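[audit] Reproducing an earlier prediction to check determinism. Same input, same settings, fresh worker. If the tokens differ from the archived copy the diff job will pick it up downstream; this log only records the rerun itself.
[audit] input (157 residues):
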Amino acid sequence: MDKIARWLLIWMVLCGTAYAQPLTGLPQATVPLSGNELCYLVQGGVSKQVLCSSAFPTILPWTSAAAVTAAGTNQGNATALTAQVNVVTTVLAGTGVRLPCTTGIWQPLFNRGANTVLVYPCSGRQIESNGVNVAVGIAANWQQTFYCPTVSQCYVY
């Protein structure tokens, strides 16, 4: 199972909103169930699973950006993230990205660049207890998930 699929499965299990079952010959990627529950095929390598959740209609489909370039050295000129799932592939030393000004959205961020990427909150917010408008770093070849429940606070998972 690839890292994004694994992250999704772990998140859903921790939140208690889904269950996973072995794939048993389902020919399609999505299977509607009773009520508003949906199932999605998650496949990575030889591993195949079906994830079922009533939360899917509100969190999927996720937008993704597979090749983000970090830029700027402060909150004002850092690259603005426009997708929910972002993979930063180019990171020069001291450059960063800025989280969007949304609330209530899980935002996985993968750093596949050569250096630590600085992640700035939306203007007026703080990440954890680092101070308003202060960046946090994500090391090369690492990932973190950000969640901003309010207009002033974000957390890292």
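[audit] rerun output stored. Observation attached for the diff report: The longest helix spans residues 3-15.
[audit] end
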